[in-house]
Design goal:
Layout (H helix, E strand, L loop, with lengths): L1 E6 L2 E5 L4 E7 L2 E5 L7 H10 L7 E5 L5 H4 L2 H8 L2 E5 L3 H4 L12 H8 L14 E3 L4 E2 L5 E5 L8 E5 L4 E3 L4 E4 L2 E4 L6 H12 L5 E3 L10 H13 L2
Helix pairs in contact: 6-7
């Protein structure tokens, strides 16, 4: 487990597999994604290392239903009575009421997929609040839910216009200094449309489901990546 300060209110918690983001404001703590099953302990240790009380965790936002994002949500919600938030289209999968749709893989992605370590199954997790595009959460002065389908049907990003922060989920990535769309989408064409939508948002800081944060200048990085897609 590794903690990275992105900005005063926001820390990235890098887990054995997966990433969680901790947002702190006057209303308490919000966790965005939870890594794989078994990550609850490391996440709690990270919160305490930051000098914070895990009992202040008010909300867990899940950007989509994949098990490297939802794996520890049920355990953390149960321990700290936190509200779990997800898009209405992914909520049934998170609750294990219906199976996930498999991704459509390119040859390059198939090679990556085959090299992934086994991921433990996520415990079924309640979703206390099912959101839609445009809903606003009480985070950072108002976090707008941006529905970005394509990675999964119910993938979401969170846009905090006040502080200029964007949580992209897996629609976008930033690896080795390169901003680009993510991988392993159920609908690659819709995922690219969603990526372009994120590139239109005014943001200073962006954090990703996979890859390094962009602490400053995120809009330019996302727009540049979207423009390159248009040139192909």
């Amino acid at each position: 487990m590794e903690i990275t300060r992105v900005r005063e209110e926001l820390h990235m918690i890098t887990l054995e597999f997966g990433t969680a983001y901790l947002w702190r404001d006057e209303h308490g703590l919000t966790l965005v994604d939870t890594g794989i099953a078994g990550s609850a302990g490391p996440i709690e240790r990270a919160v305490r290392e930051l000098g914070l009380d895990p009992a202040a965790l008010r909300r867990i936002v899940l950007t989509h239903h994949h098990e490297d994002h939802t794996g520890s949500a049920a355990e953390l919600a149960r321990r700290w009575s936190a509200e779990v938030v997800a898009h209405r289209l992914d909520a049934p999968v998170i609750r294990r009421e219906q199976p996930p749709v498999p991704p459509v893989l390119s040859p390059f992605e198939q090679e990556l997929w085959d090299g992934l370590p086994p991921i433990p199954p996520a415990e079924p997790c309640p979703v206390h609040r099912e959101v839609r595009d445009g809903d606003v959460l009480d985070i950072g002065g108002g976090a707008v839910v941006v529905h970005v389908p394509g990675h999964t049907d119910g993938s979401i990003a969170l846009h905090l216009p006040g502080p200029g922060v964007l949580f992209t989920g897996d629609i976008a990535s930033h690896v080795q200094g390169r901003t680009r769309p993510g991988v392993f989408h159920t609908d690659p064409a819709r995922a690219l449309e969603s990526f372009r939508r994120l590139a239109e948002l005014p943001v200073e800081t962006a954090v990703f489901g996979h890859g390094d944060p962009i602490a400053a200048g995120a809009s330019a990085a996302l727009r540049g990546a979207a423009e390159q897609l248009g040139q192909r």
